[in-house]
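Appendix B, example 12.
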Amino acid sequence: MPINHIFIISIQSLLLCTFLSVNGAVPSDSLREKDYPYLFSKIRKSESRPELQKVYLQAFLRNAKTDRNWEMIVNGYKNYMDYAPGKLAITYSDSMVEVALGSGCDKLIGSAYLSKGIAYYVLKDHEQALENYLAAQPYIESAADTYLDYKLKYNIAHVKYYLGNNEEAIALLSSCLDYFKEHNDRAYLSILHSLGLCYTKAGNYGQSEAMVSLGRKEAGRLDNHTMDDYFKHLEGQNHFFVRDYALAIQKLKQSIPGIEKNKDYANVAVANFYIGKSYWELRKFEQSFPYLKKVAAAFDEKAYTRPDLRENFELLIKYHKKREETERALYYVDQLLKADTLLLSRHDRLYDNIHRNYDTKELLREKQDMEEQLSYEKTKKRWLTAIVLILVIFSLLVIIRYERHRRFQNRIYRQLIRENQKEASKNTPTRVREMEIAPETLDKILNLLVKWEEAEGFLAADITQTSLALHLETNTRYVSDVILNYRGKKFNEYINDLKVNYIIEQLKSDRLKRMYTHDALAKEAGFSTTKRFVQAFKTRTGISPSFFSEKIRKEMREK
């Protein structure tokens, strides 16, 4: 500690002692003449009177420095650390370690690092706690101090428990059990409780309950009940995990008052979480909500969380989403993201082992969705109106198009009924070009073509330009030119149209053929496949053969 800081503490102590002496709060005998056990006892007993306690803290440290007693100087700073609020304890722990290092004593250095680690553990900074425990280890081993050795194992076990290394934590705690059973009742009971916590976290609830039973029995034997509320706290958690929610709620509620007296906000938060979650599992959501909210408040005020408490925010998100309280749900999404960041900053391995219903990417996506939903709600009616209007317009367009198509089909149908398809096939269009065919040859080809049409030679299934050329006693080029100039079509179109016209006339005149299937009609006309028949019919007429057949059947029935 800097010299000016020490000077200020000394002046403050002198003035305060004078003031308190006048008011009869400090004995008239000089604190300089009191030994360290006396001052340490006064420090403990004056905890409820901070100003008086400060006098004894300063006197202890001042006497130690006057005596140049390294061990007591270290203990003086440790006293300040033990009673300092929040992060101020870390400041005093830094001075404690600095003095210990200056002493060159392995036992003091190891003890100082260990105490600093405990200070970090109290603040739930488990990574820094473990770092200081590991820094203490070589000095404690070198000092060969049994008490410090077991104390170090005990505290490292708690960090390993927090990090999820349950088997290693159980092994370390078990190795400490016999020693503390003989030398420290409070620590012995705490180890039994810690073993129970490890077994619970590992899912071995039966073994955890065995530790609770043994702890209660030993507490009675030793007449030491400082851990009773913590055993009840653990018992409540075990009841939750075996789904005995009503008993879990009862035990956890009973444990809270005693734990609160110890200012143990962390275990109070754990109790509130499992009470809230028990009500949630019982589907008593309104009773669950106040306890879940207390856990969230602990995070707000103390930045305290741990992997299993992470679900608390997920339940609050579900609660507010179910009530359509989107803004509150978004608030707890943000808190959940903060909790994830905090857990990640404490330990990567710990964060990797967290079992999570929303991951960070999905959580961010869900947050974005909810924010968009808030914006969407403001324009929902307008969009609904626009969508309905679009649907109405679309429906009208579909109806109009359908009516137009129906009228077109009926017009085509009427035209086909009026026309004589045989005569239509013989219509000779204006010739598109002069042909280099002798007139007598042309007349011959045309006469044979007409006779072939009248004989319905086109109904054959295997007609080609070559086969028709043989029938017309000419070549394929002449056949192609004559059909193009005198029938106005290419060869395939000409043949298909003849076949389709034939079918149309058959359907108009033959009641039986109106009942034919497409397959039968295709075969009747000489098409190689039904698909080609349907395509040719649509190309020729603009309507399907099924529409034509059904229409003509309907009209015939009405007659």
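The longest helix spans residues 380-418. The chain has 28 helices and no strands.
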